[in-house]
Amino acid sequence: MARQPLKTYLCLFAQQHPEFRLPELLSLASVTKSEVKFDELSYSKTNPLLLVHFPSEESACRIAARSLLIRSLFELWGSGRNHDELEASVNKLPSEFTDRYRRSDYTFKVVVRGFSRKCSAEKQLQLYERLSYLPLAGKVNLSNPDYEFHLLEDYGDNPNEAPMEPHRVFVGRLISHGQRHLIQKYAVKNRHFIGNTSMDAQLSLIMANMAQVKEGSLVFDPFVGTGSLLVAGAHFGGFGMGADIDYPLIHGRGRASRAGAESKWRGKDENVSSNLRQYGLADRYLDVLVADAAKNVWRQGELFDAIITDPPYGIREGRRKIWVKKYTKPSPT
Amino acid sequence: MKLLTHNMLTSHVKGVKNGFPLRILARKVEVRQIDFNPNFITRMIPRIDWSVLRAAAENLGHGQGLPESPPEEYESQEDFLKSAHHVLMEVEVLEGDLECPESGRKFPVTEGIPNMLLREDEV
Ligand SMILES: C[S@@+](CC[C@H](N)C(=O)[O-])C[C@H]1O[C@@H](n2cnc3c(N)ncnc32)[C@H](O)[C@@H]1O
């Protein structure tokens, strides 16, 4: 089979968890079965911009549809070390590429952004006018355009020592945003059942991406706590199974962990299953057990597609043994 | 506890050679409706010990209509997948015990949650 030539996209990453950007991207390429290539040497953890190559816009969008660390993806129209080089590179675009935009049957807007240095409104206007060489015949519509073109100016990695002129500039057409909105949607602060160590929504979703959870995956968390990782797994189509040694926690007993509510007892419905229900994922809850992760309770065989977990660390929620004596009286017959 | 979970759990009491399957001594069983997801059930069938599932379902009074073994090309047999879905996902043991087949040790199930913890001297 002839391989499709790869097309070039500009990836704008979020400025968080830079160490997970490339691992997440590679995992998502694998789980969505898309090819991806990039030059690792051109990547710096302190810089949010990276050129990446995908076989098609569709495969790029499949990745963005799951990524937490991609802020936006752009089809690359041109790049250069300065605005003259950028203009020359845009002018070299083949006509098949630009023909569609030389017709007038669409609307667009142009966005100008600087990294490590904010552009003044005046400078933005200048840059915007400088872009008149873009082969765009549509009408401008700022509120709801069919297409968005972005000029991205990179002033280096250090905002405190940003030069007057950018050292790289790019123009691209926005093709997709990543899934940053999920961070609010699954925010622990609005979660029904939380504990002292409930895993942050963003990290949970990144973990589910790295574990390549997909529709119909059986996901296990041996230190399930309040089930944040099962919520994240369920968002991507997984079915969640959990275990934890903390009997009262799993049974929704004991004191609430929410700030300001520490003196209250947990409600009867504070459990992992209600956390999934809160997001309309109730049917993706399988079971939780009270079990010690150090003792295997699973029969041999291939059972789970993914094990995602956040084991006890430090002193906040240390490894426990205390419940063992209290709750393991075999029940009367 | 769903029968899917039961199908994967084993006893781990010290000295026990084969702790699977755990015998279900049910005091309270409930059927809860769960959306049928044929893809998930299809993925689970190869991981399931079918005869154990069938015996467990029969023991709880929900074994009707389950074949001796999964049919060939089960992924396209919707009736089969639906009955598998019912016993794997919808039949829940809420109260009871899971008994180790060798040692007789009972793991209690309360509020639908199995407690698999052992005392120090049992592990
Ligand atoms: C860091 S917390 C996990 C928090 C969870 N990710 C959440 O979002 O709520 C670690 C959990 O491990 C449990 N744990 C400690 N020792 C354990 C053991 N030996 N076996 C199973 N769970 C254990 C604790 O009860 C605690 O809930």
Automatic annotation (TrEMBL), chain A:
For this protein, what is the EC number? 2.1.1.214
Q: Which UniProt keywords apply?
A: Cytoplasm, Methyltransferase, RNA-binding, S-adenosyl-L-methionine, Transferase, tRNA processing, tRNA-binding
Task: Extract the GO molecular function terms from the UniProt entry.
Answer: tRNA (guanine(10)-N2)-methyltransferase activity; tRNA binding
Catalytic activity line of the entry: guanosine(10) in tRNA + S-adenosyl-L-methionine = N(2)-methylguanosine(10) in tRNA + S-adenosyl-L-homocysteine + H(+)
Q: Can you say where in the cell this protein is located?
A: Cytoplasm
**One Gene Ontology biological process:** methylation
| Quaternary structure and partners | Part of the heterodimeric TRMT11-TRM112 methyltransferase complex; this complex forms an active tRNA methyltransferase, where TRMT112 acts as an activator of the catalytic subunit TRMT11.
Concerning its family, UniProt says:
Belongs to the class I-like SAM-binding methyltransferase superfamily. TRM11 methyltransferase family.
Spell out the protein name for this chain: tRNA (guanine(10)-N(2))-methyltransferase TRMT11
UniProtKB/TrEMBL annotation, chain B:
From the Swiss-Prot or TrEMBL record, what is one GO molecular function term?
A: protein heterodimerization activity
Its annotated compartments are: Cytoplasm, Perinuclear region; Nucleus, Nucleoplasm
Query: One short Pfam family name for this protein?
Result: Trm112p
Gene3D superfamilies on file: 2.20.25.10
> GO CC: one term?
perinuclear region of cytoplasm
GO terms for biological process, alphabetical: rRNA (guanine-N7)-methylation; tRNA methylation
For this UniProt record, the keywords arranged alphabetically read as follows: Cytoplasm, Methyltransferase, Nucleus, Transferase
Name of the protein described by the UniProt record: Multifunctional methyltransferase subunit TRM112-like protein
Which source organism does the UniProt entry give?
Geodia barretti
